[in-house]
Amino acid sequence: MILPPGFDPLHPNRGVSINGQIRRWPNKIVPYDISAISDSRDRQTIELAMQKLMYDTGITKPGQTSRTSCVTFRPAQSTDRKVLKIQYGTGCSASVGYNTNYPNTVRLQRNGCFRSGIIQHELAHVLGFFHEQSRPDRDQYLTVHYENIQQGMAFNFQKYSWGREVENQGSTYDYDSLMHYGRNDFTKNGKPTLTPRTAGAQIGQREKLSSIDIAEIRRYYKCS
Which residues does Zn(2+) bind (predicted)? Predict the structure, then answer.
């Protein structure tokens, strides 16, 4: 992910989601521009991932048979004030939350990032969510092996704290979160960087949003 300006990874004060209505996308709509993605198959992969996220986070209201979207990704229009720009890049990364003073971007490396679950992970950042292992209570559930982390990458494993810039979503710790790192992410020596404290727990899946991920997005965007 791309951390917003003013965020100091050495002095973190964020939790799972960015605090404040101003960081949510207005009207729960994310206008996007994928004109920089030249391959039609890559564009289709992105749009299918968006559709999957919209469907999974959608709500079926009483008396209805169809689902109502919680958040909507749609092509940008000339009247849109801010637009999510999706482009090729090095690695898989995204800006976090709705940003009025700097670009809203997703960067996807052609070799490795064009899978639905990976794209949904980046889109969840865009909606305002950080990594699960950044929760302030993570030490109850994980051991972080700093001695195995690549030089200069330790900030990715910082534990944040609830405060004025983050919102506590009130959910239990979620090993199955699409937003959780895997055991060996950013390893410098092939040894684990994260070890769950719960025997048999699996972390780092990149297939789909977990049930808790879905509940948190709905709660953050006040969908019911």
Answer: 121, 125, 131
- Identify which of 132, 139, 138, 128 has the alpha carbon closest to the alpha carbon of residue 165: 128
State pTM to two decimals: 0.88
Assigned architecture for domain 18-128: 3-Layer(aba) Sandwich (3.40)
11 is in an annotated binding site: no
CA 124 to chain centre: 3
The residue type at 32:
Y
Please say whether the beta carbons of 61 and 79 come within 8 A: no
pLDDT per residue as tens digits for the range 26-77? 999 999 999 999 999 999 999 999 999 999 999 998 888 888 999 999 999 9
Q: Does the annotation flag 121 for ligand binding?
A: yes
Catalytic site includes residue 122: yes
The CATH superfamily assigned to 131-211 is Collagenase (Catalytic Domain) (3.40.390.10)
Let me know: does 33 contact 86? Beta carbons within 8 Å: yes
